[in-house]
Each structure stands twice: as C-alpha cells, then as structure tokens.
Design goal:
With 340 residues, this protein is of the alpha/beta class. Helix content is 26%, strand content 26%. The protein is globular and about 65 Å long.
C-alpha cells in the first residue's frame, strides 16, 4: 500500500511524497495516522538548515537515530489507530488509539512495544502533545522550584506555555513570563501566569525587579530560557537573582550564543543548567524512570488540556504552507498540527 510522508529536502524546502509501505511483520502492527504535531523549535532548525550535522536527530528514538542528511523524514509526535496486526500480535490491538514517536507519515509499521495507548477520556488533540508535556515535566523537575520562589520564563511557545501551566500549580511568590508575540502572551495569562510581558520593552531592566520591603531589587530565584534564541540567554542572566538557577531548555542548533559572562553572571554566582528531555537528572534517577515520567505526563495532559493551544490544523498535503507560515509569521501561531 501507499502512504504520504513528509521530507525535508533542503533548507526552506519540504515535500510530501507518495511511497510504498510494507505489510506488518509477525510481531508488528500497521497504524493509520490521524494527527501529527510539528515541533516548531527542532523542525524549524531543520527547515532553516540550522541543525548541527554532527549529531543524530535523537539517539533515544530508533527512527531518528541516524545522521542528519537531506533528504530526510522527521517528526516525533503522532497519534493514530491500529488497523492491522501481524500473526503473532494479539488481535485486541485492532482499533486501539495510540501515540508513537514517528516522523510525519500517513501510515507506519511498528512493534506494539514502541506504542503508548492513549488513555480513555483524552482527546487525540491533547494526546498528540505528549512529547511537549513530557519536556515541560522534565524542565520543572530540573528547575526544582521551591515554595515562595520568584520564577521567570522566557519563551511562550508550546513547551514554554506547558511549563507555565505546570508551574502555576506551585505555591510561588510570582510567575512572570516574557514573550514577543501577543497571541502567546495572552495564552500565558489564560494559563495562570502572574504577568506576561514583552522582552523587547525598553523598560526590561525594571520589569525583572520586584519591590520588597526588605530589599528593593529582587530578581528571580529560578529562570527558564525557552525561546530558542541565543540572545535570550543574556536576558535570562539579567533576570536571575544572586545564586539563581537558569534552566536552558532551548536547543540553538548551529546558532551561536554570545554570552556576557563578565558582568552579573560572575558577581551573582549564577548557575546555568542544560535541560534535555532524553535523560532524567541524576538527583531523580534513583526514583524516576521514563515510564513513571510518561505516566505523569499523561495525567498532566488530562488536567491542562493543551489542545487549547492548537491554532492551526492543516492537511499533510499542504505541509509546505505550514512551514512557510511558521518561518514567516510565527506570531500568528502557537501549535500547528497535520491532519490525515
């Protein structure tokens, strides 16, 4: 049978190709894709040719573990329905709604052990954002917020917004987010942020300070840099208070960060911590594993219902228009999904 698959051909060029797909083997199933989500941070690095070519796409996902060479298929957030099973697979899998870390494609063959069954009562639109929620959970675990802390988040794309949604559940003193685009600032406020401000404001230096009866110039105890823009790291440094923690969840790819380490970073004894979802931090690893974190991410999807962040649902055949829009007018979008 044939399927439609999205290929990145070269910087700025994507194409949906018809290609043959094999029947499932004895221990495999055939999944018909219903939705897949664009990971705008990572996929725009590919679209713009800014992905570091000496790294695999993702060492922990089999379908993405190879080298980065065009043309290539990418994507890791797919929900679908099992429509056929191999002779060694329990037929009860038929019609199960499942999540998979797979590239954008209308059908795929996979072993059931690599799938996650979507919990009852959760919509496909919520389920397709499982990787984003898992990443947000990982960010919060790495930041380890404490009661009464002041927290700042730079970047309110989907992962930044989900990080906001989780942090508003903590008894913080204040949670302030910074985001360039009006649409995302409003979404941040809707999720419960204390304030959501424009980081390009000329009064930025004053915006990052809290007034307090004991000390006039408080900054943040915990800062997240989630913009994907290396210039955001210097603002994150300025926003952090003495011995504050800065969690860098952005992946800059080939974009270099010109960081000012000679000023407040040095005097303030700041900590810059890289956070990446493929691993669990060493402080938690004795008690947490990937299945536990996934189970918690599923529960947070039920509570947050991130489908509210989907602004565009586009047929896979129009993938070129979707990426051109994300490249030219990102402020008009929050989350873009492909429908099949």
């Amino acid at each position: 049978m044939e399927r439609k698959s999205l290929y990145f051909l070269s910087p700025g060029v994507v194409e949906v190709r018809d290609e043959q797909i094999s029947d499932p083997g004895p221990n495999q199933v055939l999944v018909r894709t219903l939705l897949s989500a664009i990971s705008s941070g990572t996929e725009m690095l590919l679209y713009r040719g800014q992905f570091p070519d000496h790294l695999p796409l993702d060492e922990n996902i089999e379908s993405l573990s190879g080298p980065v060479t065009y043309p290539l298929k990418y994507g890791y957030s797919v929900v679908g329905e099992i429509i056929e099973v191999g002779k060694e697979v329990n037929p009860d899998w038929i019609e199960k709604k499942v999540f998979a870390f797979q590239p954008h494609s209308s059908y795929f063959v996979i072993e059931p052990g690599s799938l996650q069954i979507i919990p009852d009562g959760l919509s496909l639109e919520d389920a397709v954002l499982l990787p984003n929620m898992e990443t947000a959970v990982s960010f919060v675990m790495d930041g380890a917020p404490l009661i009464g802390e002041r927290v700042v988040i730079f970047g309110q794309g989907v992962v930044g917004l989900l990080t906001t949604a989780l942090l508003v559940k903590f008894p913080l003193e204040r949670l302030i987010t910074f985001e360039r685009y009006d649409l995302r600032r409003q979404a941040s406020l809707d999720l419960g942020a204390s304030q959501s401000l424009d980081p390009s404001s000329p009064s930025f230096d004053e915006l990052i300070k809290w007034e307090n009866q004991d000390r006039m110039l408080h900054r943040a105890d915990l800062v997240y840099e989630l913009t994907g823009d290396p210039d955001g790291l210097n603002q994150a440094i300025e926003a952090a208070d003495f011995e504050g923690r800065i969690i860098v969840g952005s992946w800059y790819g080939k974009k270099m960060a010109n960081i000012d380490l000679g000023g407040w970073f040095h005097r303030g004894r700041l900590k810059i911590i890289s956070s990446q979802v493929s691993q669990i931090n060493s402080a938690s690893r004795g008690r947490w594993d990937k299945p536990r974190r996934f189970n918690f991410a599923w529960e947070m999807l039920k509570q947050v219902k991130p489908s509210q962040l989907i602004t565009h649902s586009i047929p896979i055949e129009e993938a070129d228009k979707a990426f051109a829009m994300l490249d030219a007018t990102p402020g008009d979008t929050i989350q873009v999904v492909f429908k099949y």
